[in-house]
Design goal:
Two copies of one chain form a homodimer. Chain A is mainly alpha-helical. Chain A has two domains: 5-86, Winged helix-like DNA-binding domain superfamily/Winged helix DNA-binding domain (Arc Repressor Mutant, subunit A, Orthogonal Bundle), CATH 1.10.10.10; 98-181. Chain A has helices spanning 5-14, 21-32, 40-52, 76-86, 98-105, 114-141, 148-181; strands spanning 19-20, 56-58, 71-74. The N and C termini of chain A lie far apart (52 Å). Chains A and B meet through helix 1, helix 4, helix 5, helix 6 and helix 7 of A and helix 1, helix 4, helix 5, helix 6 and helix 7 of B. Chain A binds a DNA duplex (28 and 28 nucleotides) through residues 1-2, 4-6, 20-23, 38-42, 44-45, 48, 66-70.
Chain lengths: 182, 182
DNA sequence: CGGCGCATGTAACTTGTTACATGATTCC
DNA sequence: GGAATCATGTAACAAGTTACATGCGCCG
């Protein structure tokens, strides 16, 4: 029952505006970075298969803005398919956090540089939360539009969760430092 | 460079005690539920390939406790391999949260039952956090052992992150309710 | 003797990443 | 003219899920 989600990210983004594969990749990175990602190896073949199923279409050659780029637009069938998916309950997410696994299995191997791992983890999410904060400010500044408030809530998810990540890593770093000096 | 992590979960668990595939599956669910999962379709074939690589071994028939069960133990080579992995920095985790995707793409489709989705999300993690709290209390009660404090920190990760999830979903539910009555 | 939980397994498939190849365009 | 970035693509592989099949042992 696990439907290919890549399909819906593409349909969703194309439902706003026509885009090329490359632009889709960039948009996913820009907007969804903190809760979604796609690789080219997944993206381009999916675009092809969506065209075959008539859920999206390629702009006719004469409408293309550059020779290299291939812009796609969503068809009515595609819009339907997207809407259908929106009405299906989200599946339970599976998360895999290698750092916790390593922490667990290195309980008896104190030489493992857990503090180093935790610092990298923390730095990574500190950067991410800064990006989100910036994004939030930008959104708050520009004139109020329909969806801004909704999007702020999506950003807030990232902020809250990353804050938890960061607090946990700080505390855990302290714990390991204390432990090491004992 | 993405090494098969299932290998290391198995090696890690077997480094504590001999186990069967079925027991490994159960242990992963019990201990790692909130940050790891494995399916049988991944587990059993991996066990076979680990035996082939001499990282684990099957107990000789006469030592098996029951006819159905196949217990494995870790070899010295396996212990080495596990240790090696512990010294490699954890890879960046990829998270995919379908609920945020649906929220984003349903901005213009208010009929989508986001409140329902959010409630299910919240309930799910409320249950999970209760389990973790119980687990924590159990650990705190039994006499102090080597690794309890470390494990408490691992549990604390789940507690902090789930708390963030729950707070976010509560706030977002409120937001949607307000929005609907407008 | 029926059902549940224990226990192992696999085939078919889907999903996803990585590494590579290719070439145009833009900017310095 | 060289580097960066735009832009598309694929082949080989790795990872992972699902659905199914099979049979034992125990309890009521």
């Amino acid at each position: 029952m696990s439907t290919n989600k890549t399909v819906y990210v593409i349909l969703g983004l194309l439902s706003e505006q026509p885009l090329s594969g490359y632009e889709i990749k960039k948009l996913i990175k820009l907007r969804f970075q903190f809760f979604w990602s796609e690789s080219y190896g997944q993206l381009y073949p999916t675009l092809k298969s969506l065209v075959k199923d008539n859920l999206i279409q390629v702009f006719p050659l004469e409408k293309q803005s550059s020779r290299n780029e291939i812009k796609y637009y969503i068809t009515d069938l595609g819009k339907e398919k997207l809407k259908e998916w929106l009405f299906v309950s989200p599946e339970k997410e599976t998360i895999r956090l290698e750092i916790l696994l390593k922490m667990y299995f290195s309980l008896n191997t104190p030489e493992v540089p857990m503090i180093e791992y935790l610092s990298a983890f923390k730095d990574n999410y500190s950067d991410a939360i800064n990006t989100l904060n910036l994004f939030q400010k930008e959104l708050e500044q520009i004139a109020f539009e329909d969806n801004h408030e909704d999007i702020l809530h999506i950003i807030d998810f990232g902020q809250k969760v990353y804050k938890a990540y960061i607090e946990w890593s700080e505390e855990t770093i302290k714990y390991f430092k204390r432990k090491n000096t004992k």
